[in-house]
Structures are given as C-alpha cells and as structure tokens.
C-alpha cells in the first residue's frame, strides 16, 4: 500500500471526515532535504471532520499524528496539515 493510501485509510478510520484530501507534494521538493526518488516523502493534508470540534490547532495536529502512528510518521519527511471541523 502506498503512503498516500495509508494516510488516507488511517485518517478515514480515526476521524470519519466529511472532506479529506491527501496530496503527495514530494516533486515540488526535489533537491531539498528529505526528498526521496519516487516521491511519497512530502504530503499536504486538508481534512474537515466533526471529531476535531473543540480542539485547538496543536491538539488537532497531535490527534492526526497519533492516528497515523509513529511508524508511518517516521517514513514521512514533511506533513502539512490544514484541519478544521
């Protein structure tokens, strides 16, 4: 399973979002630190989920990192998050 699919699956399972966009943005980081040939090193995630209601920005980011788990987080160089209710 690709990292993109893993991210999508983990977030859908944890938050049941009404909106979820996972974008592999690795190619725009070619030549920068952490870039891996073949991509899947830099991601942008836009998610809207009722499960995030009442959480502050930092708490939302921590919840996403917890849902993805340490193994997947270690395999990602960069993860940009746009999170809302």
Give an overview of the whole structure:
- Helix content is 36%, strand content 24%.
- It contains two helices and three strands.
- The protein has a three-stranded mixed β-sheet.
- The mean pLDDT is 91.
Main attributes of the structure:
about 80 residues, alpha+beta, GMP Synthetase, Chain A, domain 3, 3-stranded mixed sheet, 2 helices
Q: Output the structural class.
A: alpha+beta
Please give the largest β-sheet.
3 strands, mixed
CATH topology: GMP Synthetase, Chain A, domain 3
Task: State the name of the first-level CATH class.
Answer: Alpha Beta
Biggest sheet strand line-up: 1-2-3
Radius of gyration: 13 Å
Mean pLDDT: 91
CATH superfamily annotation? BolA-like
Question: How many DSSP helices?
Answer: 2
Provide a quick synopsis of the model:
The protein has helices at 3-15, 57-74, and strands spanning 19-24, 42-48, 78-84. The protein is an alpha+beta fold and 85 residues long.
